[in-house]
Amino acid sequence: MRASVDSPRNMQLVRSRLLKGTSLKSTILGVIPDTKDPLSDLDALPPLHRIGTAALAIQVVGSNWPKPHYTLLLTGLCRFQILQLVKEKPYPVADVEQLDRLEQFTNNSEEELGELPEQFYKYAVQLVEMLDMSIPAVAKLRRLLDNLPREALPDIVTSIIRTSNQEKLQILDAVGLEARFKMTIPLLVRQIEGLKLLQKTRKHKQDDEKRVLLFFL
């Protein structure tokens, strides 16, 4: 994902940690949702959402238009929970606990989750194949569905479907895989039904245009 930062604390973090030597590859950032960084570094931080995403910045681009800011290309690593805010200046630093772990993606978890992963996979394939497969990003996503562990799919797929901010926060906070699958499958179904309705509407419109053309011919 791409994130634009322009607040004093975020700008200072980028300058002092990401733009120095090889620190870009070794600095893990904590991305906190639903929290607006104050416009002045003299102001205290607002209450922080307790669950966030650890990420690596793989690209940083700066610009002065329309005002100084940096655009970061981020790749997510795992969820974390904030245990304690250590300091606020010159940029926030916190003690955190990792929540997503590799041992979740095991045969044992498949037994506990039952048919939920396979059910999600089938809906995800149905949704992606309703899109334009000639677009490289869509074709890549289709390949990812087959190559990634089923347990990793909810976070990947729900990042591209239409959801409210509240729904995004609920998915982020759903640390348990079972809860995450049960929460995201209805969102997938909703998106599929919405696309079906859109395609049906477009087909009716095309049919109407053909009838008008035939009438004037």
Summarize the structure.
This protein is of the alpha+beta class and 217 residues long.
Helix-strand sequence? EHHEEEEHHHHHH
Instruction: Count up the domains.
Output: 2
Q: Structural class, from helix and strand content?
A: alpha+beta
Major β-sheet annotation: 5 strands, antiparallel
Q: Which percent range fits the helix content?
A: 40-55%
What is the number of helices?
Answer: 8
Mean pLDDT across the residues is 86
- The N- and C-terminal alpha carbons lie at a distance of 50 Å
Radius of gyration: 22 Å
Number of strands: 5
Low-confidence stretches: none
Backbone shape: globular
**Proportion of β residues?**
15-25%
Name its key features:
217 residues, alpha+beta, Archaeosine Trna-guanine Transglycosylase, Chain: A, domain 4, 2 domains, five-stranded antiparallel β-sheet, 47% helix, globular
What does this structure look like?
This protein has 217 residues and is an alpha+beta fold. It folds into 2 domains: 2-98, Archaeosine Trna-guanine Transglycosylase, Chain: A, domain 4 (Roll); 109-208. Helices cover 47% and strands 21% of the residues. The protein has 8 helices and 5 strands, in the order βααββββαααααα. The chain has helices spanning 8-18, 23-26, 107-113, 116-129, 136-147, 153-158, 165-173, 177-216; strands spanning 2-5, 28-31, 51-63, 69-87, 93-98. Strands 1, 2, 3, 4 and 5 form a 5-stranded antiparallel β-sheet that branches. A hairpin with a 5-residue loop joins strand 3 (51-63) and strand 4. Helix 4 (116-129) packs antiparallel against helix 5. It is globular and about 60 Å long. It starts with a strand and ends with a helix. The model has no long low-confidence stretch (mean pLDDT 86).
